[in-house]
Specification:
The chain has 292 residues and is an alpha/beta fold. The chain has 2 domains: 134 residues, Rossmann fold; 141 residues, NAD(P)-binding Rossmann-like Domain (Rossmann fold), CATH 3.40.50.720. Helices cover 39% and strands 21% of the residues. It is built from 10 helices and 12 strands. α1 packs antiparallel against α10, α5 packs parallel to α6 and α9 crosses α10.
């Protein structure tokens, strides 16, 4: 593509940003769709004050939109002009869309996870779900489960108090009682059912690829489908344990793909076709060294 006076700029703010696959996603989308747009990472150090200055600077520079990654998904909230209702519930933003006077914040992480799951034939309505962890990803997933009318959501965490806090917040804000907190060590008392399990922690992330939150084979025999939000490595210990017990298992690379695609759609006011999404996914797998 030619960069000229009409080229629009999007980017990523976070710390670190050197490892990110987001430029590959967005620059390939721009190339595939013949859009005059470039996407670059911006290393942003500091906390809420520095992030607010970065967002104000991006607006002053006419930057079309931004992604936000760790550790700034909560730091950025104070810098926003508006917030999407789902992002406001979750209290975490990863996508900024330019509007008059500032940026509107969205959480395309959880929207991307939802679209990625549905692309694999995984649906939340009426499902019994296990969430491992009670951090930001599990909290967002619990809100999604409640919004999509999951039957029951068992939130397992090493600290029961944190699980109870998240469950109470999600149930209260969603007008439901479907989220049930549990101490991680009490997993044996789960109902005798088959579950969709979502691994929402960083356990098993490269380079600690042989770690899992739970190792007990009896636990994994309860799981018909396991989804790990981690995408590096492409075959986590959690996934292997699910498969060894007879379940299906998926990694988080499609979540990364679709959160990026949804951000790109919001910035450009259009829809990306599944054919184009598959081309981007193929590029991502090549970059990761994952076999097709």
């Amino acid at each position: 593509m030619k960069i000229n006076g009409k080229t629009r700029v999007c980017g990523l703010i976070g710390n670190p940003v050197e490892h990110t696959l987001s430029p590959l996603i967005h620059n390939t989308l721009a190339e595939q769709l013949s859009h005059n747009l470039v996407y670059v990472p911006f290393l942003t150090e500091g906390g809420e004050k520095e992030v607010k200055r970065a967002v104000e600077g991006a607006y002053a520079l006419n930057i079309l939109g931004m992604n936000v990654t760790v550790p700034h998904k909560e730091h950025v909230l104070a810098a926003l002009k508006e917030m999407d209702p789902l992002a406001e519930k979750i209290k975490a933003v990863n996508t900024l869309v330019r509007i008059p006077g500032g940026y509107k914040g969205y959480n395309t992480d959880i929207m991307g996870l939802h679209r990625a799951m549905e692309s694999e034939g995984i649906y939340l309505e009426g499902e019994n779900v296990i969430l491992l962890g009670a951090g930001g990803a599990a909290r967002a997933m619990a809100f999604l489960c409640a919004e999509c009318k999951a039957e029951k959501v068992y939130l397992l965490n090493r600290t029961y108090e944190k699980a109870a806090q998240v469950a109470d917040e999600v149930n209260r804000k969603s007008g439901t009682d479907c989220v049930i907190p549990m101490d991680l060590s009490d997993y044996r008392s789960l109902p005798d059912k088959r579950f969709l399990a979502v691994q929402c922690t960083s356990v098993g992330l490269y380079p600690d690829t042989e770690k899992a939150v739970i190792y007990d084979e009896a636990f994994y025999r309860k799981i018909h489908t396991g989804y790990d939000v981690i995408y590096r490595p492409a075959n986590t210990r959690f996934m292997r344990l699910v498969e060894e017990a007879g379940g299906r298992a998926y990694h988080g690379l499609k979540m990364l793909l679709y959160q990026g695609i949804i951000a790109y759609e919001l910035w450009n006011g259009m829809k990306v076709s599944e054919e184009t999404a598959e081309k981007i996914y193929k590029r991502m797998k090549e970059e990761m060294g994952i076999e097709a």
